[in-house]
Amino acid sequence: MQQVKTRRKKMSVDRSYSPYEVIRAYHDRGMMKWGAFATGELTEAQNTFEKEKKEDKIIQTLPHHLVLHLLNQSFSNQVQIKVKYQSKDKLTEVYGFVSEFINNQVRIKSTDKIYLISIEQIINIS
Q1: Same domain, 70 and 121
Q2: What is the number of other CB atoms lying within 10 angstroms of the CB of residue 124?
Q3: Residue 13 placed within a domain
Q4: What is the pLDDT of residues 30-74, one digit of tens each?
Q5: Which of 59, 75, 95, 107 could form a cystine bridge with 100, CB 3.0-4.6 A?
Q6: Which secondary structure element, helix H or strand E, spans residue 55, and what is its range?
Q7: Distance in angstroms (rounded) separating the CA atoms of residues 118 and 71
Q8: Keywords on this record (predicted)?
Q9: C-alpha to C-alpha distance for 16 and 25, rounded to whole angstroms
Q10: Nearest in space to 87 (alpha carbons), one of 53, 125, 120
Q11: CB contact at 8 A, 84 and 123
């Protein structure tokens, strides 16, 4: 059985108009020339994404007196709130109603659970 070699037809651009030998002899590498550009663009996009993700994690901590005021308002008006608090090494969010103050803690009733959170751990309320 005889093997048939197929030759790829290379596309070329007629540059015979140019008076410069360098331009007439130029050989285009095709898609290879875009590899570095695409890789650089992808790396830049990933770095931007990571930077934005880190910036999203930065949350302004409310002053202690404002935390107490908002908790009191929620308790008085029975308005549901979202409390963000520091629990060990992670940030936790709880949605619910303030039901009781116990010493330096607040009890928040969620639809599925009751949370007892130290007021000192509360970072943000909305």
Answers
A1: yes
A2: 17
A3: no
A4: 666 666 666 777 788 888 888 777 665 666 788 888 988 999 998
A5: 107
A6: helix 35-57
A7: 12
A8: Plasmid
A9: 9
A10: 120
A11: yes
Summary mean pLDDT of the chain: 80
CA distance 124 to 29: 56
Residue 96 lies in a domain: yes
Q: Does residue 29 or residue 79 have the better pLDDT?
A: 79
pLDDT class of 89 with cuts at 50, 70, 90: confident
Which of 96, 52, 92 is CA-nearest to residue 74? 96
Total-model pTM: 0.53
Does 69 share its domain with 107? Answer: yes
- Which residue range is the domain that position 88 belongs to? 64-125
Q: Is the pLDDT reported for residue 75 higher than 80?
A: yes
Same domain flag for 31 and 47: yes
CATH number reported for the structural domain that contains residue 78 in this entry = 2.30.30.100
- Give the Cα separation of 118 and 126 in Å (integer): 17
Residue 12 has pLDDT above 80, yes or no: no
The answer to whether residue 8 is domain-embedded is no
Q: Hey, which bits of 7-125 come out as E strands?
A: 81-87, 90-102, 105-109, 114-118, 122-125
